[in-house]
Amino acid sequence: MCGRYSIVMTPDEMRGQFGYPELPNFPPRYNVAPTQPIPLVRLWEGRRQFTLMRWGLLPSWVKDPKAFTLLINARADTVNDKPAFRNAMKYRRCLIPADGFYEWKREGTSKRPYLIRMKSKAPFAFAGLWETWTGPNGEEVDTAAMVTTEANKVLAPIHHRMPVILPPQAYADWLDHANVTAAQASSLLVPFDDEPMEAFEISAEVNRVANDNPDIQRPYTAPPPAEMMLPFG
Questions:
Q1: Is 205 a catalytic residue?
Q2: Taking the mean position of all CA atoms in its chain, how far away is CA 95?
Q3: Is 233 among the domain residues?
Q4: Helix, strand, coil shares of the chain as percentages rounded to 5?
Q5: Residue 20 domain-assigned?
Q6: For the chain, which terminal residue's Cβ has fewer other Cβ atoms within 10 angstroms, N or C?
Q7: What domain count does the chain have?
Q8: Which of 13, 22, 94, 103 is catalytic?
Q9: Is the model's pLDDT at 162 over the cut of 60?
Q10: In this predicted model, what pLDDT tens digit does every residue of 94-142 receive, in sequence order?
Q11: Active-site residue, from 2, 195, 205, 227
Q12: Which domain holds residue 183?
């Protein structure tokens, strides 16, 4: 699964990468977490649109949101079958811009955080799904989830799954629900190529959502052994 990621590209970079006309001033975020608003790109009235939605999909048929577990990820192998995602896969596919994401490697009883990104630090897009939930009083909440697949060779030593990263040439087909069926779009839900990607351990500071700054992405440096820490004098 993917439970945290970063979006630090500038607004101009995001517009250039994803081709929408809006001029949002979305600030850099180094530690995006579920339930927070996230930027995404969808097709709306025939053109690409930038919008913000809550991370954690809420299907339209849910009666009581407080009693429903937010769905931050959707498995690629079941996304066309599960009621929570089936209609979104047909009609409401989106791109979720990102620069990197975090995963935790379990070692015994502890977990060590890693940053995964492109070696070039270039931005990319997760395959996403969105829904609009309408409450009993007419209130509407737009929510989204990212699709996950099996890990590639970069992720496999850390975790067995990874978010689906779409290459730029696949953006149009993923978004075009009118002409590209859910079954056809499913062929895009594969592990991203290994070669452009890197993963390295970072500080446990990323564990706290409140830590939202560039320092959390610095490579982890282990403290020196105790025998090397000699007293002065």
A1: no
A2: 9
A3: no
A4: 20, 35, 45
A5: yes
A6: C
A7: 1
A8: 103
A9: yes
A10: 999 999 999 999 988 889 999 999 999 999 999 999 999 988 888 899 9
A11: 2
A12: 4-228
